[in-house]
């Protein structure tokens, strides 16, 4: 039996609005937590469950569309866009990425609460049918694995992707410190510390190959690029 109210995460860089939404939804009985950027959200996500995520599009660094693409790719979250952007191209893009609702600011809080409740009822029915629980680090076997003996990555859903030695090492470094942001310079130093003059573009090449391989396998990697800071693997990886 699931909780009667969903846990809501709010990604909103306007501190006043984020706090007002948090207070309002908590008063309605929700567990709520917030983040002021995509980077902050990724850092908290693997420690905090969430059922529905409210996403602003105009975020600093990684924008809301990139966040939505990952969340809907994973398929465990309800996603509601709450943004000042009312243009049709933005609406179409957000909904095509898989967002459940697109709301334009200023948003009536009571209407938003009703939309959350309606979306939650739909999600509950879907989860009852599939047996999917909400996102949590400790949710059964719901984790990524690196298998050294086979040099491959296994997804929470059981799919397997073969890795090159460098791809394996990159994921091993990122996955052992889930949600820690590594600059490309730090990764270069950790992976090629015995090279006197390592090519600074080697991380980009490895990353490009890894993402291309994941797309070919229809695997959505929780690997995010944080603008101006580096890379983060959002979920923990077990070895």
UniProtKB/TrEMBL annotation:
Q: Which SUPFAM superfamilies match?
A: C-terminal effector domain of the bipartite response regulators (SSF46894), CheY-like (SSF52172)
Q: Which GO terms describe its biological process?
A: regulation of DNA-templated transcription
The molecular function GO annotations come to: phosphorelay response regulator activity; transcription cis-regulatory region binding
- The PTM 4-aspartylphosphate maps to 56
Q: Where is the Response regulatory domain?
A: 7-120
Report the InterPro entries cross-referenced here: CheY-like_superfamily, OmpR/PhoB-type_DNA-bd, Sig_transdc_resp-reg_C-effctor, Sig_transdc_resp-reg_receiver, WalR-like, WH-like_DNA-bd_sf
Residues covered by the OmpR/PhoB-type domain: 135-235
Entry's Gene Ontology cellular component terms: cytosol; protein-DNA complex
Annotation: DNA-binding region:
135-235
**Keywords noted in UniProt:** DNA-binding, Phosphoprotein, Transcription, Transcription regulation, Two-component regulatory system
Task: Tell me one Pfam family matched here.
Answer: Trans_reg_C
The record ties this protein, via SMART domains, to: REC, Trans_reg_C
Give the matching PANTHER family.
Answer: REGULATOR OF RPOS, TWO-COMPONENT RESPONSE REGULATOR ORR33
Name used for this protein in its record: DNA-binding response OmpR family regulator
């Amino acid at each position: 039996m699931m909780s009667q109210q969903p846990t809501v995460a709010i990604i909103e860089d306007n501190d006043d609005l984020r706090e007002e939404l948090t207070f309002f939804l908590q008063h309605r009985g929700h567990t709520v937590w917030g983040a002021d950027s995509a980077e902050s959200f990724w850092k908290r996500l693997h420690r905090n469950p969430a059922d529905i995520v409210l996403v602003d599009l105009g975020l600093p660094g990684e924008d809301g569309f990139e966040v939505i693409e990952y969340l809907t790719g994973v398929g465990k979250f309800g996603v509601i866009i709450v943004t000042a952007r009312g243009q049709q191209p933005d609406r179409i893009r957000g909904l095509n990425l898989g967002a459940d609702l697109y709301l334009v600011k200023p948003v009536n809080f009571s209407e938003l609460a009703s939309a959350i409740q309606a979306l939650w009822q739909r999600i509950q029915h879907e989860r009852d049918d599939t047996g999917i629980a909400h996102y949590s680090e400790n949710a059964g076997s719901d984790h990524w694995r690196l298998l050294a003996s086979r040099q491959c990555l296994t997804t929470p859903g059981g799919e397997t992707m073969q890795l090159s030695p460098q791809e394996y090492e990159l994921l091993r470094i990122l996955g052992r410190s889930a949600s820690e942001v590594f600059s490309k310079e730090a990764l270069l130093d950790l992976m090629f510390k015995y090279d006197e003059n390592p090519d600074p573009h080697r991380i980009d090449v490895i990353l490009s190959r890894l993402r291309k391989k994941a797309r070919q396998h229809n695997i959505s990697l929780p690997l995010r690029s944080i603008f101006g800071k580096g890379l983060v693997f959002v979920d923990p990886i077990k070895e």
